[in-house]
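We close this part of the discussion by returning to an individual protein. In the encoding step, the backbone of a single protein was reduced to a row of integers, each denoting a local shape. The sequence in question and its structure tokens are set out directly beneath this paragraph.
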Amino acid sequence: MANKRQRQIDKAMFEQLKHDIISRHGKKAYSKSVADYQLMLWKRTKKYDGWW
């Protein structure tokens, strides 16, 4: 599992990504991206507990 610092970094990156996607493509694209991002994190850690 990611340590607390790494999780904060991931969350900050996620917030930036969220803002970029919504401003560029709207909320519908964002919803799909969230699913893709969660899947990527899960694959990376195999048991990622997430923070959203």
